[in-house]
Amino acid sequence: MRLRDFFVGLLILSWLPVAAAAPLDWQACHLPGQREALRCGRLAVPRDYAQAQAGTVEIHVAMAPAIRPRAEPDPLFVLAGGPGQAGSDLAALLDGAFAKVRASRDIVFIDQRGTGRSGRLACAPADDMLARSDSALEADMLACLRGYGAGLLAYTTAAAAEDIEHLRQAVGAERINLWGGSYGTRLAQVYATRYPQQVRSLILDGVADADLIIGADALEFEAALAALLQRCADDTDCSRAFPTLAQQLQTVLQKLDTSATTASLPHPRDGAPLAAPISRQRLLMTVKYLLYSPQSAAQLPYLIARAAADDWRPLLAAQANSLDLAAAAPAEGLLLGITCREDWPRLDAAQRAQLAAAPIFGGSIAALDALCGELALPATGAASAPASASAQSISAPSLLLSGALDPVTPPARAERALRQLPHGQHLIAAGAGHIVSGLGCAPRLLRRFLDAPAAPLDGACLADIALPAFQTSAAGTAP
């Protein structure tokens, strides 16, 4: 819960023909969030599709068989976001977003190369990230990523799309349906342009259009935060509790611009004494994390007000939650490898200036410049070409889902993506943030769409997704 000319042929290379893949050897397995056993398999694919001698990498795939004895012949392939999240991290969606779909279709979770059980390109977390300075964390990250060296070059969106084709053959499906979330919508569209005959339908949730540049999201987050502040001002309980919220936010930022501070408190997870540095960068990272979901964003007015009163403990607890090691964090190697090769090189001087001028989140582009500049990875072949000008049309019926409160892939992104999706329909959930599929009536809509992809879909029921009440005190919402 963030392209270039990849729609045409991201990485225009002399790709080798896709040889028929051997069937998968399925084994019973258990994934996080699932009590029942699923079927897991591993498939060896070329490390570099342009160089046969480069060896192979293994792709992990998990399948949740359809509930009905006779499943539909076209399974649903699940492509996670990030980049860096693994499909196996989304297994919990079987009981929510995909519960209706699974009645008649196999659900296939793919760990994209470099994620999860497919050779995760991750950096070991610091013993206590909350206690480390920003500069120390950045130095650790760069040292880790440099350690991967040229190995990162094999991990691209284009290669992942070819991996999907090998997996389609291995599971024995003539055609597949694709569900992509966030970055997964990019990967789904790349695959659909390369293998249009193999795609029955697309479900794109939190849509990345052809012009989206991962990491260049300052303007979207500015708009999302401004909308949150306005919702608080328009809400009776929130405005009564925090009548000067926008001013309090500016006060906090000005304090941190003057000098970073340190807060002492019991560790939010284990209760041990903790001295945590607090900087503008770290504050805004936590704000971004909370804005992804209306449920977590409802805490922000209270956290800002407490920080303005020099009580940083609630904010640090939220930060600890965002860094919680029990959560599935994106694989940093894949995230930065793809971002720095496929997205960052497309930023021009005018875009950088516009992003840097964002009053609150403008510093994020400098952080991206520093990371990608230090890594100095070569851009992919198509990275410098204008994406939207040459993006190919995708003929498959497509369902696009957007949350009106999404801070990184707002509905306008999906509307632009529709230019290349002539058989697409776009549904917006007014009360949702990033990723809609598991909310309200969305699981039912997914099933209806997959049963008849070409039929118009009535998404009026998405209006029933209600916004949560704002937290107004340590006790929670107003009585």
Automatic annotation (TrEMBL):
Keyword tags: Hydrolase, Signal
GO molecular function: hydrolase activity
Pfam families: Abhydrolase_1
InterPro entries on file: AB_hydrolase_1, AB_hydrolase_fold, Peptidase_S33, Serine_prot/Carboxylest_S33
Gene3D superfamilies noted in UniProt: alpha/beta hydrolase
Domain AB hydrolase-1: 75-436
Organism domain of life: Bacteria
PANTHER family noted in UniProt: 2-SUCCINYL-6-HYDROXY-2,4-CYCLOHEXADIENE-1-CARBOXYLATE SYNTHASE (PTHR43248), AB HYDROLASE-1 DOMAIN-CONTAINING PROTEIN-RELATED (PTHR43248:SF25)
Stated family: Belongs to the peptidase S33 family.
Name of this chain's protein: Alpha/beta hydrolase
Species per Swiss-Prot/TrEMBL record: Tahibacter harae
